[in-house]
Amino acid sequence: MPKKLSVPEIRVTSSEQQGLFAQAADPITPLKEIDMNGATLMELEDIVKAAHQSFQSHLGDALQAGLIAGKALLTAKQQFTYNRQTGGFRGWLERIEVSKSTAYRYIELATNEPIVSQAGTLSEAMERLAQHRAEQRALKAGEEQVEVKKRRVTLKLSNERDQKLESIAKSRGGDVSALIKEIVEQWLANEQDS
């Protein structure tokens, strides 16, 4: 005698069924709604593992998975102090089988979310991060060049002239350095005009 197929007693509407399929297709959705600040270390471990697996298997949006993993890693990192026996945060990463370089890539995504959130793909986000790093280096190099251009000058003045400078600076409510700077700037401006 052939077996009868059992029919579930509770029926699901088509919209509920679509929602279940969408949730099953996108494992990142439930992770987006978790409050990571109140999560325990075990919960953060589960979040990182799930986001990391989704990232590796390309089941979900890789950029979103990387951002979520980064946020969870940042929160988890705050809970660690270095311990020689367990290795602290890095030891924890080894235990959950996430490489240090991958973890710090996730963290970089999360700490630069305003820059990468406008990207459509993970590779575009990484390009934006590389461009941002290059701009920051250029800014820093520009600041260093400004420092190089500053000059220190030692003036050897007679006591009489030194006292005269001090008295003029005092009458103007400043110091000798500011007065000399003002005099040099006025002289340079006059030289440019002529």
UniProtKB/TrEMBL annotation:
Organism domain of life: Bacteria
Keywords, comma-separated and alphabetical: Plasmid
Annotated protein name in UniProt: Uncharacterized protein
Lineage start: Bacteria, Bacillati, Cyanobacteriota, Cyanophyceae, Synechococcales
